[in-house]
## 1
Amino acid sequence: MAQTLRLCRLIAVAALAVVSLAAQFEREPIPERPEVNEQEIADGKRLFDGHCAGCHGPGGRGALGPNLAKPKLSRVTDAESLFLIVDLGIQGTEMPRGWQLHDLEIWKITAYVESLGKLDPEPLPGDPVAGKRVYESKGNCAACHWLNGSGGRQGPELSEIGAARSVAHLHQALLEPSAAVPRGFLLVTAIHKDGRRMEGVRLYDGPFSIQIRDFSDELHSLMKSELTEVVKREGESSMPSYAATLSNTEMDDLVAYLATLQGGS
Ligand code: HEC
Ligand code: HEC
């Protein structure tokens, strides 16, 4: 009996996995693209302002999400790949699926985003080569951040941060870290029944246990029955502000360097 139950559950889980895989990688064939003209682009802008500008900024110049007003987007190869990103989102990131959008609306948005790539690119102050030196020699960034195969784990990985965030967001993250905490990142303090406190980044929070990475990069699995409280420190960051420790030039150089980190190296 128990075995049949387990088997059923296994089949259910497998079926679910197949369905969600299909949702991720398959859809009906993309309908033929309408002619791109001024009207399509204007309609696309209106849709973009409503659905996308909240994350990608007005004119797609970037906010929490990356700047889209660039001739080459790191995840886009052609019009159809752009269509699919808007339709299906990017798994494992804050880029959502375009549930509410019809295919023809997605083509309009595609036309608008493509038109942004033809505008003059925003000039970036700062020198990425000098910025790499700032990263390596000042601020101890690598103690907390994983980058291209090494570093600490307390903060988020930075190997693709330039593709994921705008320059404005990167500046804000360095000046005022607690104002720019990424979704899903949470500092917690777990208070043990005997009064001991454990601080760190929440990795997993289940009904019976919580997993925390402490500030020396060690993992801890704590049983909730042993704890009196888990304090969720929403909007708090363990990253120091660099407003006072880096000069304006160093800050611009560092941001220019972070903007070049697009993964794949
Ligand atoms: C909730 C925030 C959010 C919304 C809403 C959102 N995006 Fe995004 N988008 C992101 C983030 C964050 C990324 C970067 C993901 C990554 O690569 O880590 C992204 C990535 C992208 C990319 C890939 C960029 C590249 O460099 O290849 C495109 C294109 C894009 N978004 C277009 C859109 C469009 C068009 C809309 C509206 C239909 C939209 N996004 C709505 C957050 C958002
Ligand atoms: C003491 C650990 C620590 C140090 C040192 C540190 N960071 Fe962070 N960093 C974090 C944590 C934790 C977060 C996530 C919460 C937040 O956004 O403030 C973060 C967030 C970020 C983000 C935003 C990530 C995102 O997805 O939006 C960037 C960019 C960043 N750090 C860059 C740097 C750079 C560059 C340095 C060195 C000048 C640095 N950090 C030093 C811990 C640290």
## 2
Amino acid sequence: MGEATEVRGVVFGPVHSRRLGVSLGVNNLAGKECTYSCVYCQAGRTPSKSLTRRVFRDPTYVVNEVVRALHNLSVRVDYVTFVPDGEPTLDACLGYEVSEVLRSTGARVAVITNGSLLWRADVREDLLNASLVSVKIDCGSEEVFRRINRPHELLSWSLVLDGILKFSKEFTGRLITETMLVEGVNDSPAELRKISEALRLVGPDKAYIMVPVRPPAERWVRPPTREFLREAAELISEYLGRDRVHLLASVEGRPPAPFVGEGVLDSLARLTKVHPLKLDYALETIVKEARVGREEALKIILESGAFEVVRYGDTFFVRVRRDG
Ligand code: SF4
């Protein structure tokens, strides 16, 4: 297979997020860089895990691109969301970018982080101004942490949870959690109780229980059954209260196209680098934007060389072509 497609733009979408409403995405990294390599990651395996914060892009450029996109969009955006194809807090300029987007646009700003660097005071400080922060709690034990999140070797679950707890006490915005349940990995009754206990300690405004719905990094990853999910949500509700637990078990709805980008293929590439899109939605977008028929739209995707079509369950997705 050829080389991965290079995508330059930092702003993508907007998409209908199942948690945030209409969300305009910001990819503040330059490639898949993360502290974890989760088995279910929709951005693929992490080539080399890192704990080093660094400058990925000119932060003024990132802020200006968000301002420009918001100015040109015809739909109302609920959140500008830092959600790259990796861990957003690895960006040493994140605090500046969050604060400047808030100051110059007045938009609400969300950061979707795995929370693995919140034991660092500088990372907690960078997130304090955000309107909403989402952190990941997929496990309650070291053993399952290593199996599902496959973290950098210097991270331990106790260190990560301690950081998340510190942040939960300092942060005055809206804190939510994401828990991805994977069949045979973190779905034992004992682990679910530990996850529930960790959630109770963190005390999120809302705990989202999720399942893999897009092509995962590892082919064997499967969602638990619907019946199990209902039982899991019941158990977690015993710790948090029913109104704070929300089950998300399907792909979100049709995105509010047109997307941000320099033409339809660039905008699809920006989006599907982070967020694989249902093939149906991708075709509809091209049909509308390029004024062609559905067959022609499929030909454009397949012949561009920039994308791959991947099946997960019964659904086909389009994503930017990757190495390997
Ligand atoms: S799911 Fe998030 S935390 Fe996990 S490897 Fe992918 S980008 Fe990193």
## 3
Amino acid sequence: MTRSALLITGAGSGIGRAVACAAARDGWYVHATDIDHAAAAETLDRVRQRGGHGTSHGLDVTDAAAVAQTFSALDAASVPLRGLFTAAGIDSGGASHELDPAVWRRVLDVNATGTFLVVQQALEAMMHGGGSIVLCGSPAAQVGFAAGGVTAYGASKGAISSMTRTLAVDYARFGIRINAIVPGPTETPLMWANVPSADVERMRDQVAREVPLGRMAQPEEIAESVLWLLSDRASYTTGSLIGCDGGVLAKSSISV
Ligand SMILES: NC(=O)c1ccc[n+]([C@@H]2O[C@H](COP(=O)([O-])OP(=O)(O)OC[C@H]3O[C@@H](n4cnc5c(N)ncnc54)[C@H](O)[C@@H]3O)[C@@H](O)[C@H]2O)c1
């Protein structure tokens, strides 16, 4: 059986790391990349502990030259790239009327432009053989969060939603499927990036009460949906935003 490679950005933590571990179980050869190379290397250790194989790379997705260099360093001749999962992301924000434009630019740069730069390289690698690309969206692309202050993050994820649809249409004829996973609140460092540590426990309980399924997701639960999208079991699914959100987007807060 010819093995296929999956490249993951933001593989050093949270959802990206969980996808790397599940991918090893499913037989993918895993290229784990992250701006934090030590964290990506730790993910690769976990892949190997599960009997998997792969490589690790320090990669800042906003650096176009580094993205191109990382893809050209892959041994695509012996293990062709057939999968991409773009988990690299940041969440920073605040009230829009006083948001530092540098913060806006950084969030868009990492979450939207960084995703695009990586997708460009993956498309090139998959043009003659096909593949499956899974981007990382968010409910913030579709609704305003009650906590507020997520305009930059929401806009960056809105870009992911539209990229998913337009890329899917453009590259279907090359046998490349492009979808996005839309995770609900998931227990990762990013979830608490803007919450003072003293408030985390209280916020965790509050979020759990607000989610229809009554709890936050574990990254491994999101990973299962991503692995399905990456696999041939999703062979007729492209251009879709697939919710894995505990019912968050189905819920209205109107209670009367
Ligand atoms: N956790 C949630 O509740 C949630 C919900 C919806 C969507 N998401 C999305 O899931 C994705 C993964 O987030 P997570 O929750 O696992 O967060 P996380 O913080 O655990 O992981 C994000 C990873 O991205 C890496 N990263 C940050 N900037 C980078 C850059 N410039 N280049 C390369 N890597 C970079 C970080 O080092 C980190 O390892 C993100 O796109 C996030 O927006 C998360």
